[in-house]
Amino acid sequence: MLEVEWKESARDDLLEIIDYISDDNPDAAQKLKDEIETKVAKLLSHPKMGRQGRVAGTREIVVHKNYVVVYTENVKAISILRLLHVARSWPPS
What we know:
Elements lengths: L2 E4 L1 H15 L3 H16 L9 E2 L6 E6 L2 E7 L3 E9 L8
Parallel strand pairs: 1-5
Antiparallel strand pairs: 2-3, 3-4, 4-5
């Protein structure tokens, strides 16, 4: 059965974003976290719904107007590699 696997870098990205937002608005932070996790979960039934990634072998899905999830997929898992603000360059130079 296919599963979602959050890599440490992606989990760190999520926690950093949520922590930053929660300083000003804890409710908005929780709402964003829920929205991201809900959209990522949809990848289980539609793993190719994201566009081709900017790095070979990856895919990207917009999970919020300001955030993109970078992931890979195979027959066993959807691996979430990063969660990035849209203004952030990827891959890093």
